[in-house]
Design goal:
alpha/beta; elongated; about 150 residues; 5 strands
């Protein structure tokens, strides 16, 4: 397991009961240059991790027992969290269309697709942070202007 202090580039939580999948995703995340990530095999472990840390991205398998509880709990605790849900069948994807900030990938995982989705999710996190900082700066400038 790779678990370092939160960096400015964001944090990722991987939840999958299959060791090969956690190992593969760990390699992809490292190749992309992200250092702050945690690998767990159960939703219970994930919920414990989410209590301690607001992750920017959660990657999980829809076959993971209680994965819906994981999505709901993570979204409730940290509304800005993005998700990548791994599916085994393409016909299941329509049930995720209504969810915001959720991307879908299909198993078996393709390196280029999962890397692109992770990069995109973390880029969206950076954009959100930049927008929040700009909004904060405008509010401060307005406060100073009004004196």
């Amino acid at each position: 397991m790779h678990d370092q202090e939160r960096g400015s580039q964001g944090s990722i939580l991987v939840v999958d009961q299959e060791e090969w999948c956690r190992a593969f995703l760990s390699s992809v995340i490292k190749l992309l240059g992200f250092e702050d990530f945690k690998l767990v095999s159960t939703v219970a472990e994930a919920l414990t991790a989410l209590e301690a840390t607001p992750f920017d991205l959660v990657i999980t398998d829809h076959r993971q027992p209680d994965y819906r509880q994981l999505l709901e709990s993570a979204r409730h605790r940290h509304p800005a969290t993005r998700f990548i849900v791994m599916l085994h069948q393409r016909n299941l994807s329509q049930q995720f269309f209504y969810l915001e900030q959720v991307d879908i990938v299909y198993k078996p995982l393709a390196l280029d697709e999962i890397a692109r989705k992770i990069r995109h999710a973390m880029h969206q996190k950076s954009l959100r942070q930049a927008e929040e900082e700009l909004r904060r700066m405008k509010q401060e400038a307005f406060r100073i202007f009004l004196g």
